[in-house]
Design brief:
single chain; alpha+beta; globular; 8-stranded mixed β-sheet
């Protein structure tokens, strides 16, 4: 299943470049999370305008972006986008829906939308 995503490169809340490659979208995100197929723009918006960002529980170089998925078929779930950083450049690792802020370091809050 492919949604013909060309990928994106954007700037996050700390002015770091974040990239989602078309290969990552097709070969990882859509193959493992097919419910995301229609929501590449929502993934992009989650990185551009997150509700909250936490440090990952398993990797201190990964930040997990969350945004309530109000524009989707799952308005009570969060779009969750882990982004791995290296030298202030980020790559989207995956994207999926979840009901809460799972997989985070609870003391590692990085950003809260005001």
């Amino acid at each position: 299943m492919s949604s013909d995503c060309a990928g994106f490169t954007i700037v996050d809340y700390k002015s770091r470049t974040v990239t989602l490659s078309s290969e990552k979208w097709d070969n990882h995100i859509i193959s493992r999370h097919p419910e995301m197929a229609d929501y590449v723009s929502s993934v992009e918006e989650t990185v551009l305008n997150p509700d909250v960002v936490y440090e990952s529980k398993s990797d201190t170089e990964t930040e997990v972006f969350f945004r309530l998925a109000t524009e989707t078929k799952h308005p009570k779930l969060y779009i969750t986008v882990p982004v791995g950083y290296n030298n202030n450049k980020g790559n989207v690792k995956t994207a999926f829906f979840q009901p809460d802020f799972g997989g985070i370091n609870e003391k590692g809050i990085k950003y809260v939308k005001s």
